[in-house]
User: What shape does this take?
Amino acid sequence: MSDTTNQADEVPIEVGGTVMLTVQGGSGKPLLILHDELGYPGWMGWNAALSATRAQIIPLQPGFGRSDALPWLRDYRDLAAHYARFVRQVGTPIDVIGFSAGGYLAAELAAIDPGLFDRIVLVGPLGVRPTTGEIYDFLAVTTRTHVAATVSKQDAPEFAKIYGGTMGAEQFMLFEAARAETSRLGWEPFMFDPALPDMLNGVPNPVLIVRGTEDIICPQGCVDVYAAALPSAQVAMIDGVGHRPEIEDPDAFLGLIKNFLA
Amino acid sequence: MLIGYFTEQPYRGVTEEQVLRHGSYFGISNSNFDRQLGADLYNEYLDEFCYAEDLGFDAVCLNEHHGNPFCMSACLNISAAMLAKATETVKLVLIGNPLPAHHNPLRVAEELAQIDLVSRGRVVAGWVRGSGPEQFFNNSNPAINRELFEEAHDFIIQAWTRPGPWRYEGKHFHYRHVNPWALPYQQPHPPTLIPGVLSLETVEWAADRNYPYLGLGTSLAPTAELWDIYADRVASRGYQAGPENFGYLGMVAVGDTEEEAVEMARNFLFAKGNGLFARAEHTLPAGFNSASAIKRLSSNASGGWLGLNRDKIMGEDHGKADLSPEELLKIRGEIDIALEKMRENYQIIAGTPEQVKARIETILRVARPGHFVFMNVQGDVDAERRRKNMRLISEHVIPHMRQLSEELGLSSQFEVKPGSRRLAPGQARIQTTFPELLPAQKAKAA
Assistant: This one.
C-alpha cells in the first residue's frame, strides 16, 4: 500500500483569479484533504487505500511554492476565507481531513461556515492554545529537525521514503517555502487563534480528533480544547506514533477514518 | 574621510569553552550574567567611546543585539543618548536601529530626534533589518521582516519631515496622531549609513536611496564586486557613485610586534567570533531571507556568512555539551586557520603599525571608501590592552589614512553629498573600485 506515484493527477483550479493547484485521485464520494505546514508529502499508501471509495482533493496551499502565492493573506482566518471560496466551488457539503496546520485551517473553515462540511477529521490539529503543554516551536529549529520531530517512528517505511536520506535541494526549497509561509501566517500567536474555541461553539458537524500518543508537535492540551469546544467530537488516540499517524501506523489510521467517514 | 571607532561591547564573563559547547553565543542562559561585571563593562565601554573622541576618531559607532554575550549593547539609542552628553565632537553613528525588532517606529523617530538635538546634530541614523536571533528575541515575524523594515523606515522619514499632526494607516503600522514635537536638529533629517554583510537586496535598497553602504567586516574582493553593483544601480538613475557612497569596517589589531598583534587579533575569533553568533536555526529563520538568498547559501559547502554553509542550513540543530578535549583542540586549530584566511581577505588586519598601514592602504586604494570604521577586539581582553590598540591606531595609522584620503580623494558623505555627482544622459560611469590592485595571491585567497 505504499505506491506513492501515478495514482493522482495535478489539477489547477482557478479561485478568485488565482490558480490553486490541487492533487486529485480516487473515485467515489469527494473527500477534501488539507495538508500540514510542511506541504503535500506525496500520494501515500493511505491515499491509495482510500482511492476505491473516495475521490480525494488535496489543494496545495498558496505560498508553498506550487499554487499562486497570495500576499494579502495575514493569518489562518484569511486563509480560511480563501479556502471557503475554493470549497464552495468544489461542492458542499464535503468531508474533510486536516493534518496539523491543515487541521487548524479546517477548524477555521468550520467556524466560518459549518455548512461547508459534512464530517470533519482533525489529525494532530494545531490552532488552539493548549490547556497543557506547548505547540512545538518548529520555526525555532532547522528544517531537518522539524521534519524529524514530526514522527516518533523514523523507521516507518513511508517516512523513510519521502524524507529519509539526503534532502535534495528541490525538496529543501519546498520545505523552506512552506515554513516561510507558515511563519508569515502563524508566527504570533504561534499557530493558534485565540478566538477559535469560542467561534467553534455551536458547530454541529460530527468531528473525529486523532492524535498519536507520542506526538510532540501537537500537545494533548490542543485536543482537550477542541474536545471541549466541540461537544460532538470524538477523540481517538493511536498508540506509539507521533504527529504523522497516517504514515507511522497507516492501518490504525485507516481503520479509524474509514469507520468515521463511512 | 570619516574615521570611526566601533566595538561590539563583548561581555567578558563567558569562556570560549562555554560558547563552543553551547554551539553559539545566542541562547546561553542569562544565569551566567554577573551583574557587577556587567556594570563595570557598560561603564568601561562608554569611557572607551569617549577615549576615541580624545584620540581623534571622527565618529563612534554603536549597534545592538539581544540576549547575546557577543554584544552587550541591547539598546543603542540609550548608549547614543548618554554619549550625546558625554562627548562633544564625534558623530554618533548608529549601525543600526533594527527597525522590525522595535515594533514602534514613531518611538524611534522621537528617540533619535532627541539624541540629535542633545548632540546638536551629530547623529548618523543607520537602519538594519536585524539579524535572525533578533527576530526570535523580539518576536518579530521573520517572514515579513523586509516589509516591516521598509515601512518603518519610510514612516520615520515622514515623521521627521512632514508637518503634523497627521494620521497614518500603513500595512503593518497604524497611528492616529503623528506629530512628534521634537524634530531632529539636522535638516531635513540626520544623514544615513546602511550597514550590511553583503546582502544584495540591502545593497540595492541603499543604492536606490543614495544611502552610503557600510560593509561590516566583509572580504575585500566580494565587497568591491558588490559595490560595483551599487555603482551600476546608481548610474542607471543618472548618478556617479563615489567614496561618499561607501564605508568599510575592518577588524584591526595593532601591536608593537606582529606576534603581539596576531595574538590579540585571535580574539576577533574568540569562540569562532561571529561564526558562532547564533545557530543556523536562529540565524536564518524561515522566510527571513529571499528564496534566492537561501538557495545561494544552501549551495555553499565551504562556509559563508555568519558561519553558515550547506551542512548547517540543511542539517539538524547544533550544540554539543560533551565536546571532548580532542574536539576542543580541533576547533581551536580551525580558529587559527580561519584567522589566517580572514587576514588574507582583509577582514582582519593585524600587525605592527607599519604592517597595518600597508594593509589599510590597499583597502583604501582598492575599495575607495569614504568612511572607515575600526572595530576593536572581542574576547577577554582587558581595558588597558584594548586602549593600547586604539592608541596605536590613532598615533600611527590614522595620520597615514588622512594623508592618503587627501591624495585619493576619499570624500565622506559629509564632504560630498551622496547622489550629487550627476551623469549626463548616456554618459558611462567611471570606475569606483579597483580590485586589480589587489596583490595576485591575495585576490585568489579572497
Notes: The first strand of chain A starts at residue 9 and ends at 15. Chain A has one domain: 9-261. Chain A touches chain B through 22 residues (CB under 8 Å). The CA atoms of residues 160 and 232 of chain A lie 36 Å apart.
